[in-house]
Every structure is written in structure tokens, then in C-alpha cells.
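Quick log. Single chain, no ligands specified.
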Amino acid sequence: MRLPDPQTSRVVLIGASQYADPELPDLPAVARTVTDLAQLLTDPTYGVVPEEHCTTLFDNGDLRTVGQRLRAAVDEAEDLLLVYFAGHGLVSSRRHDLYLALPDSEWAAPEFNSLEYDKLRDAVLDSPALNKVVILDCCFSGRAVADTLASDAGNIEQLEVAGTYVPTSAQRDQVALALPGENHIAFSGRLIRLLAEGAVGGPEFLTIEDLFQRLRQTMTAEGLPTPLNRGAGTANQIALSVNRAFAASAGPALRERHVDAVQQGIGGDWKKAATLLQKIIDEQTRILGPKHIDTLRTQQSYAHSLGASGDPMKAAQLLRQLLPENINLLGPDHSDTLRTRQFLAVNIGEAGYRDEAIGMLRVLLADRSRVLGAEDPHTLRTRHMLARNLLFTGSRDEALALLRQLVTERERILGPEHPHTRRASDDLAGADGEED
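-> predicted structure:
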């Protein structure tokens, strides 16, 4: 199971909410439905295509324009082709074929101004895309799978070769519903909820089959029209979304692994910690997204582990890239942002750029004192790092003054036996010895 390739996949969303024919009532919920579905399918983290690969045809009554833009997407798709329609479904009087109503369609004679489903089907089947999904949310949409796609063995064989999946919102002769008080039409609204909230207990990725089966259960339980589907080939196994509910449950487990990896480094094996943290970043990026706060925190720890294992230059490069992300997402005074600045200054110093590190630590010390307080353990840590870098540049008087003050404050705040207190005492003793 996999997500589609976003660069070689295409999505076409067709919706009609306003109709000129008084026999066809307007469907205002279609507007919100198409807009929200487009946002979900193009979401940078959980969607399947970027915005430029999602064609939205909303309230477009020009059948030629609809056909041209549909054909363009059909021809460009190589991995996934997803075509969606929301609006009125019409049935011709003699052949009982399914037509998808556009704003200028006529209820009594849909043959001349509606999108004929057979033509849509043929266009989709002609696409070079490996996987094809057609979603119909309209009245009588079950005819697309009960009649049109299953009318003869040749069509079924063609579908099996093409790898096509067609879920519909209603049975052959059912009327799809737009329920009063709901922002979306019934079938698509529940699809949107699944994409936005995920499926609790479901897999990491949601295939069209996963979505359909859950929609079928939900709509049956609510007494709504029972959806149908027709699938062939591998199309029903391609994922249409990351399961957001899975991400919610996976987050805590990944955070625990993050803590365990850092403890591995604190215990003395920072190289192993770095390997573990890189794996966690890969999973968090895939499941939670690259901008999720957990992903950014693990990137921070990973950079720190590289510096601790002997590559402060690489660590500093990563931390320089991470810092703007912290500021944009969390703000300049957030504890994670301040910690990234601390790690960056320390690694710059360890890479040999002591003067630059000292300048950064002086500013950070003032900021941490302002935000956290002068006696906060993190503020004291910054003072300690400033003193150590000053020693490396020969500024002993200032360094000794900082270390003496630091030892006194840590003994009072943390206790004389605390590891941070003892480390400051050792640094002070070493500096005093060198001065003698």
C-alpha cells in the first residue's frame, strides 16, 4: 500500500450547485463540499496532490470547457486519476442512461446539455494513469456501476485491465440526499469527515476501499442511501489519504521513542542516538508532517546528537535551518526556539567559531533571563556555556566571575551534588588552576 505520486497524479472535482432549469433545485451544499474536498486532497501533509494538479470545475455550464479541462487532466495523469462529481444526476427518458447535470442542464432532456457518464467513463478508461477513481455523489449514481460499467463482460474486462474504482452515493434508483442543516451533501460530507478526522483503529494509510467500507457502514446506520462501488485491478489498494487518527495515536509512541533515543545519548552513545533519531524523524515527517512540533523537536535533538558525537559543523548547519521554522511556528520566545538557539551557539563554538558563539550566547542569556528568569536552570545553563566559550578565547576574568556566580546559584537552587553544580565547580576549579 502506498500514497500516489503527487507529481504524476491528477484530481478533477466537478460540482454544480446552481441550475437554470426550475425543475432542478439549487444545491447550495455542493459549493462548500467541493471547496472542502479540494483543501483536503491538496493538503501539503495529508493530501495526494499539490494545488496545481487539482482541477476544480464549479458551476461551469460550458460542456466544451468541462470536457477540455477533464481531458487535459486525464492525459497528464500517470499514477492516480481521481474524478469527482457532485450535483444532480439525471436519467434519459428512453435509454435510462446516467447524465451528470451541469448548471444549464434540463431535467426533461439531459442528453444535449449534461455530461454523459458514458463519455466520462470512456475518457477515464483512456487515461494512461495506473489507478483510476471516479466518485459520484448524485441521484441515480448507482447506475454507473449497476448498468454502465457492468453492462457486458467486455466492460468488466476493460476495467480489470485499467484498474478502476467507482464508489457512488446511491443505489441504481435512489435519490442522494442533502440533509437540512448540514454544510455538505450527505455522502461527500461523511467522506470529508473521514479524510479530516481519520478512522480510529484504521491503518496508517486509507485506501478508497477503506473509505468506502466505512462510509457504507456509517450511511446504513444513519438510514441514508446505501452507496455502491465497483472495483477492479489495484485501484482499490492505492491510498487516498494519511489516516489522521492513526497519526494522533502514533504521535505519543514516537515521542516515547524520541525520549529513549536521547537517553541513549546521555548514557554515552550519541552515535546510536543519532541513528535512532533519524529514523524517528523519517516516520514523523511521513505521519505527522515536516512542520509538526514533534518533528521539529526530534530534528533539534538529532542535530544536538550529531554535535555530541563529533560533528558540530553539521549540527550547526541543521540548527540554522531549524531556527526559522521554530520562530515561524512557535514564536521567538518559545522554549523550543530558545533551546535551538542554545544548541546552535554551542555547536558553533565547538566547531571553532568561539567569538560568534559568545555573541549569540550573550543575546540568548538576556532573552532567557527576560523570558524565564535569571535563576531558571535553562538560563543558568546559557551562562555556563558563555563562561566556557570565554575561557577558550582567553577572557578568564569574565569567565571566572560568571563561573563563581554560577556555582553559588546552582548550589542554592539545585544543590551541591547536582550534576550541573558539580560540572560548574569542576570548570571553575580548572580555570582557577590554569590561572595559578
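The CA atoms of residues 219 and 374 lie 60 Å apart.
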